[in-house]
Prior knowledge:
The protein has 194 residues and is mostly helical. The protein is 66% helix and 5% strand. It has two domains: 2-85 and 182-192, Orthogonal Bundle (Recoverin, domain 1); 87-178, EF-hand (Recoverin, domain 1), CATH 1.10.238. The protein has helices at residues 2-28, 36-42, 52-62, 72-84, 87-98, 108-121, 136-147, 157-166, 168-173, 175-178, 180-192; strands spanning 33-34, 70-71, 105-107, 154-156.
Amino acid sequence: MGQAQQTENAEEIDIKALQDMYKKFVTECPSGRLFLHEFKRFFGVDPTGEASDYAENMFRAFDKNGDNTIDFLEFVAALNLVFRGDTEHKLRWSFKVYDKDSNGFVDRDELRSIIDSIHRATKGNKKDSNEPHMTVDDAVNRIMQAVDTDGDGCINMEEFIRGAKQDPWVLNMLKVDIKPSQWILDQRRESAHF
């Protein structure tokens, strides 16, 4: 019974968060379209700060039709995935964040760019307890070694998902993308204090 009550409370929190975001969306985007600069402002991201690159990659992943705006339906679909999606759906979304040029592959430069953005956005709070001094390049090398099964220097979506599911360390490295709801809630809390 206690577990069912916790689930209900979590759903209520999610619904409340979605309702709050809807109100904010309607207030800040009466046109019904959210542009990148508005997206950053919406989540309280400094356009030149550490989270800026990460926010740009999230924006691109949310923009399903590629028109450089997020309409309310894209926004709701993205938030539903962020708050309620299963691991595989979140990994698929994460892959889109990493695949900056949308060519269906994540190369070493794209991987490094996102890992670096995540590291800067989280200010290094996510450290592997076994390797506290791991650099961004060390992390990229380890991920490529674990995930690029055909050794072609690029990771396709299947390799990305399989590698993350098979290697707990890789999955842990991708947690910021797999569970961006915490990042979104943190950004909302920070922007509410201003």
